[in-house]
Amino acid sequence: xxxxxxxxxxxxxxxxxxxxxxxxxxxxxxxxxxxxxxxxxxxxxxxxxxxxxxxxxxxxxxxxxxxxxxxxxxxxxxxxxxxxxxxxxxxxxxxxxxxxxxxxxxxxxxxxxxxxxxxxxxxxxxxxxxxxxxxxxxxxxxxxxxxxxxxxxxxxxxxxxxxxxxxxxxxxxxxxxxxxxxxxxxxxxxxxxxxxxxxxxxxxxxxxxxxxxxxxxxxxxxxxxxxxxxxxxxxxxxxxxxxxxxxxxxxxxxxxxxxxxxxxxxxxxxxxxxxxxxxxxxxxxxxxxxxxxxxxxxxxxxxxxxxxxxxxxxxxxxxxxxxxxxxxxxxxxxxxxxxxxxxxxxxxxxxxxxxxxxxxxxxxxxxxxxxxxxxxxxxxxxxxxxxxxxxxxxxxxxxxxxxxxxxxxxxxxxxxxxxxxxxxxxxxxxxxxxxxxxxxxxxxxxxxxxxxxxxx
Amino acid sequence: xxxxxxxxxxxxxxxxxxxxxxxxxxxxxxxxxxxxxxxxxxxxxxxxxxxxxxxxxxxxxxxxxxxxxxxxxxxxxxxxxxxxxxxxxxxxxxxxxxxxxxxxxxxxxxxxxxxxxxxxxxxxxxxxxxxxxxxxxxxxxxxxxxxxxxxxxxxxxxxxxxxxxxxxxxxxxxxxxxxxxxxxxxxxxxxxxxxxxxxxxxxxxxxxxxxxxxxxxxxxxxxxxxxxxxxxxxxxxxxxxxxxxxxxxxxxxxxxxxxxxxxxxxxxxxxxxxxxxxxxxxxxxxxxxxxxxxxxxxxxxxxxxxxxxxxxxxxxxxxxxxxxxxxxxxxxxxxxxxxxxxxxxxxxxxxxxxxxxxxxxxxxxxxxxxxxxxxxxxxxxxxxxxxxxxxxxxxxxxxxxxxxxxxxxxxxxxxxxxxxxxxxxxxxxxxxxxxxxxxxxxxxxxxxxxxxxxxx
Lengths: 456, 456
Hints:
- Chain A is of the alpha/beta class and 456 residues long.
- In chain A, 45% of the residues lie in helices and 12% in strands.
- Chain A has helices at 12-15, 22-45, 60-71, 88-97, 123-132, 150-166, 169-175, 186-194, 214-222, 227-241, 250-263, 280-294, 316-321, 349-352, 359-376, 391-412, 423-432; strands at residues 4-6, 77-81, 114-118, 138-143, 176-180, 197-200, 269-274, 302-305, 326-334, 381-388, 451-452.
- A five-stranded mixed beta sheet of chain A has the order 1-10-9-7-8, with helices on both faces. Chain A has a five-stranded parallel beta sheet with strand order 3-2-4-5-6, sandwiched between helices.
- In chain A, helix 12 (280-294) runs parallel beside helix 16.
- The longest helix of chain A is centred in the N-terminal third of the chain and has 24 residues, at 22-45.
- The radius of gyration of chain A is 24 Å and the shape is globular.
- The termini of chain A are far apart.
- Chains A and B meet through strand 1, strand 3, helix 5, helix 6 and helix 8 of A and strand 1, strand 3, helix 5, helix 6 and helix 8 of B.
């Protein structure tokens, strides 16, 4: 089924006065949308929106498959070394399509490598992970467009040192794949000098919009996902997301409704809450996309990831009775196979009530009940209906949320494609490490009066 | 080292006018604190704060050890079945002390079972996990105070059915351990009838304050953590956290500073950002504690989990340049063992700059640089310094954040021990499942005009 956005519970008809009046919904907001779409088209004309062209880049899926398949023949584990936009898409694809879940287990499909992410330069994680892996049976995909991301470069050196201690140089070379800029940067230069395989990240593609490039297609191919279906899903959604008719455009509705609920209706916190463990990390991918694209010039919403039904026992109390400053975006999906709750004969009444219930029905009832309880408390929500979680549905979701982010950038009047706020921290890091090419910050000395250790 | 809270970067001296003036810091806030501490003491008198008594409950650690050690002799995997407060503490202990990390691997200490959590009634997760485990080598700890939590009861029946298909009834019985109310509830009744081992959750202990009871001590014992050190750390912190002198009281400072930064200084979003993969799930545990305790009567802050350095490539852009509505609480910790970045001879300049750098130094520099960049942007932050991540440090953190939550409840003038907002959703769930004992909600029919599927 195609992705559906149900937004009835954002309207005054359902929310008794606190939602968006129907006339605003399809008139004022349609004006906002038209302006945002015009801005998007101008940015596209300027060649800034490379992600829109990925679904029909000639030979993209083929080149990834041709590179990845022989490369992974001799390994049991694939390490992705990258951070932020270079890593989160891989995690979404793995969790949604790879049969692996963060909080549950590390099962892999028969014949497919386990997929691990090294994103944080935390020595305990790096030492712990490398101690578990066999360098002779591990492939490494280093992902950095510029090759200058400090965390990724440091982790790359650590992993490479670990490979080189155990293997001859030719085997090390064959185990590496760099996903990086097609022309410049340190990874590109190393690859050319040493004959390491590479795949390109197009020049007009930022990290957080790169999941449908080789950045995400390599891990997708590794877990055996259908790359053609992924790109076809994205292409289908692109048509819908760039259409002028707002009522049929889920990306346009998503962006304009969330924007107006923030700036006109006082709800700056946007909760994405999938009812599916497999889509849990989609909320983290969306958080990065939404926060880094829109949080600038003192503006921008705060995305908040959640997970149903788990967060009914954690965050829903706050959503229901805390300040009315949130919009809840549920994500509904169908499980691959349902599981019936087995009730033994003679079970007490508290358990007998599960007779005939499946886990899938329980989870679905919990989502609908939470939606309804929020509505009756006057709290707005909308639901993205994904259907079956397959490669096509992921392609639709990625493209929809990426187009929505660009439209939201136009609505918030910020540039959704830059991230100026992270540069100062990067410079300071190098300063603190004593590297001369950067100016160290003058950090004020600690004030012992404003620290609490043992009671004085 | 004892836990330290460095809050210099919340003051006007550092933040050029936007922070808390020093006179307010140690006078007005001290008045708030005195009132909150008096309320806490009254609630304690009423017997509502059972978590304060856990560190010196006679025989608590011994009874858990005596139960857990022989029980786990014959297994490779331990499944915790619980949700919310009955599950998150186990995840924190496992990630911090058990050598297992969500985003990295599933390594376990030699001779200790792998620890898995089943919290979500997601059929794909349940089927996937059970397909990976051997019922003959799996123990199951069901955690629910009342025994009436729908998700936990449904998952318990599924896991039990899976055990019963493979094992004789006596072996099934020996594989189960219920952590539940000492007297009432369906789990207690089943345990008594069938001779299943149990451990108690004291009557005056809510789920989100239960990590230092058998709820958290069972998984802690399973991974080989030092239960005595955990409880001793909590006892040390209890003394500091209940002390009248605000300047030496990290729980008091944490609660009063965050409260005033919200209600007097317009910063309702409280970010907890550990710079350590092992403490990533601490931020989720804190989120549940803070949100469910304080989010009521239209009041309460919104806790937002983050992870350093990863979120420097995701959320920090928003923290730095988005709306000034957040306080960032960093958590600094020492790794168990540092890892030097190996730089090969003749490396290009972009990599040679890592010579002599360790991952631990890099991570620490990134945290300090981000703190400083935030300060220069006028964004307030504070830092919890944990030192080495051991059982004692975890005990201190749990107790500090629990006491801070109760104090914050007094400051926000809400009852931090209830969760009325989640009841309607629970009732509606049963209604949707067609169970007569609950009233189904009247859900308005879907409005096709407010759904977007294929373009119309």
